[in-house]
Amino acid sequence: MIEVEHLSKIYGSTVAIQDVDFSVNSGEILGFLGPNGAGKTTTMRILAGYIPSSTGTARIAGYDVHEQSMQVRQRIGYLPENPPLYPDMTVESFINFVAQIKGIAAGDRIIKVNSAIERCQLTEKRSVLIRKLSKGYKQRVGIAQAIVHDPPVIILDEPTVGLDPKQIIEVRNLIKSLAGQHTVILSTHILPEVSMTCDRATIINRGKVVKTDIPANPTQDSPLKSSYKIEVEGDITPIIPLLKNIPEVIELQVNPIENNYHSAISILAQPNQEIGKDIAAIIVNSGLGLLEMRRDRPTLEDIFLEVVGTGEVK
Ligand SMILES: Nc1ncnc2c1ncn2[C@@H]1O[C@H](COP(=O)(O)OP(=O)(O)OP(=O)(O)O)[C@@H](O)[C@H]1O
């Protein structure tokens, strides 16, 4: 539904993004994750047709965002980092106004406006002036204006920045409820936001995509290696070559805990390989005591830290 290829944007001597490639499947929520200044807003603005790219292409539902911007605008809803809301309008009159600008026919407008208000849980605030709303409700109005024309694609730039913890949960739930019916791309620098809201993540750092196609909750199919921590009782000398011979094993380390008869073994294996049964069989068949075996699965945070380094992580 969204296809980005070799996208670059250069401001004078600043390369904001360089050779950015990624895609988002229909009905999916993609987290576009990166530290401050990574190039997230620049990418979102190009996708939304607000600024042109310097080179490369971006297509939404098959339409080029630059060459076919009218077709693209009809098919996207965009929530910028600071959504422009009219503070002296009520929620309903503002959403109605946006619906008019987006070309929704008068006959359909009431239904579409009501649906956006309901989906964003704004019913009790529909007659309230926007300036009297809390930041969390204002953000819901921002999302309501983005979805009022029922676009297949929704682009959200840092949708929970500045919200309190309760508002953050409410807005994340609202975003999750958009999946399936809409394809969503969400930019954020907050790791848990991706784990809680998205299906998949792409990580951008210093203008370049450094990792793509990461499951937002990488408990399986992780691109990182799996690691096993084992505690064994008995003389482990004979089993070390057997463990090393398991084809998926990359690295093995032994740390004696108390003496040579109580050892901790760390094993690093190829990504997405389940070798727990093989390890256990070797230990038990050799007559040793298997005291503990734990598989440490890499988290999104491990992956983020591996490619971006420390700092900037919330
Ligand atoms: N209009 C502009 N003119 C010059 N440089 C710009 C402009 N807009 C962005 N940049 C630069 O491009 C780089 C990427 O900025 P961008 O706003 O896209 O990052 P971001 O990931 O959204 O960061 P943040 O979360 O802090 O908004 C930064 O170095 C920024 O200073």
UniProtKB/TrEMBL annotation:
Matching PROSITE patterns: ABC_TRANSPORTER_2 (PS50893)
GO molecular function (one): ATP hydrolysis activity
InterPro entries cross-referenced by the UniProt entry: AAA+_ATPase, ABC_transporter-like_ATP-bd, P-loop_NTPase
SMART domains: AAA
Keywords for this protein: ATP-binding, Nucleotide-binding, Transport
Top-level division of the source organism's lineage: Bacteria
ABC transporter domain location: 2-231
Pfam families: ABC_tran
Family statement drawn from the similarity comment of this UniProt entry: Belongs to the ABC transporter superfamily.
Record protein name field: MFS transporter
